[in-house]
């Protein structure tokens, strides 16, 4: 098999493996897109991966580029929401709080969840939405509706690709929680579909709208860091208790990915902001990735200390590295370090750093050192740059609601603004594919003892053209 695009087991086999688990949500019903092996099954040996994925060779564009393509202007954005688990339930309020946005349809194969989503819509004073809860594939009927402009996808990772595909084929723009897909061939298909259908496919929950991230972005574009050299991003977040919870990740789908892939399972949070700092796909591009992983010990150790001996998780064998470290090289010679660790004790950190010939920023905690402002080799106060460099979104919304420090709200606010005003989105399918490519490619690189893996040019040469991104101009 091609390790950059791991084999897809049959849906029937995965459903048999998960049929007895508690809480049969969307994760359980649709694990099959790249699901975990059945409980008790041995983990297959993983062959070394080729340096170049065959799917990337000689791909011909099926439609014009989507880079710089604006949305159609509309007075009301009509939204369909697929998935009402932890993330979907946390995000629906942002859509419902914005003027000119209407949630017309909701979907989850667990009927109670779908009905709770519908209740949230009516509680916000909107008409009752259509409810889709007839099995794991009912999202296809939602995507076929003619009264939707955007489908928002907040489901387990392995379902992201088929739902995004159905949305674009149904004529809808689509925003997908990260990662946008799990396989390299799926990423290429999303790019091709976006170009062919003229629908945008966007990676949401990308952390690009954090206050610190947006301030660093504007400072980088203003030249305050000089010529950019290196950056770093991460998802270091102790999820052990949540991954072994019988209810938090239904199935439990997220933990089972650690029985399949060794690489960086969640690169988007760290990669997205640094890619924006460096204008990746807008003047530079990511060309290769080399990844290294530690032994997979943390989940098994946590299970031994906290999980009853009769728990089904004892049949699982974890192969996913506790800490994955990847180095991404760009066309301009810059280096981006990515980290992923959800299996060991660690305070939450996305690392979020940027360095250039004139200085460096490091987050967690936020600190900065720039010449000529600083000359004493001591970290300085990053907040001193707020007045001059805070993004207009943060000046307009000084205390945005919601989780993740308000960045989720601002992301939805800005996306809805772009759709209503007919603006170019701040990020597109090429960003989604690039930020997600480390999922399969880091796995392949680790299996190849750290050998570099080519990151495809999903833009097919458009990266050489400067264009706008998250560092946007406030609409008049």
Task: Write a compact overview of the structure shown.
By secondary structure, the chain is of the alpha/beta class.
Describe how the helices and strands are arranged.
Elements: H1 11-18, H2 26-29, E1 77-82, H3 86-97, E2 101-107, H4 111-123, E3 130-132, H5 139-143, E4 150-153, H6 160-169, E5 173-176, H7 184-197, E6 201-203, H8 211-221, E7 228-236, H9 240-243, H10 253-256, H11 268-277, E8 286-293, H12 298-306, E9 324-330, E10 335-341, E11 353-356, E12 359-362, E13 367-370, H13 386-389, H14 392-396, H15 407-421, H16 429-436, H17 438-447, E14 453-454
Parallel strand pairs: 1-2, 1-4, 2-3, 4-5, 5-6, 7-10
Antiparallel strand pairs: 7-11, 8-9, 8-14, 9-10, 11-12, 12-13
Helix pairs in contact: 6-7, 7-16, 8-11, 11-16
Task: Walk me through this protein's architecture.
Helix content is 31%, strand content 15%. It has 476 residues and is an alpha/beta fold. Strands 13-12-11-7-10-9-8-14 form an eight-stranded mixed beta sheet. Strands 3-2-1-4-5-6 form a six-stranded parallel beta sheet, sandwiched between helices. Helix 6 packs parallel to helix 7 and helix 11 packs across helix 16. The chain starts with 10 loop residues before the first helix and ends in a 22-residue tail after the last strand.
Tell me roughly what share of residues is in helical segments. Answer: 25-40%
Put simply, the count of helices is: 17
Strand percent estimate: 15-25%
SS elements, strand count: 14
Q: Shape from CA axes?
A: globular
Low-confidence stretches are: 1-57
Mean pLDDT: 89
The neighbouring-strand order within the major sheet is: 13-12-11-7-10-9-8-14
> Taking Cα atoms only, what radius of gyration do you get, to the nearest Å?
21 Å
Class by alpha and beta content = alpha/beta
Main sheet properties: 8 strands, mixed
Straight-line distance between termini: 52 Å
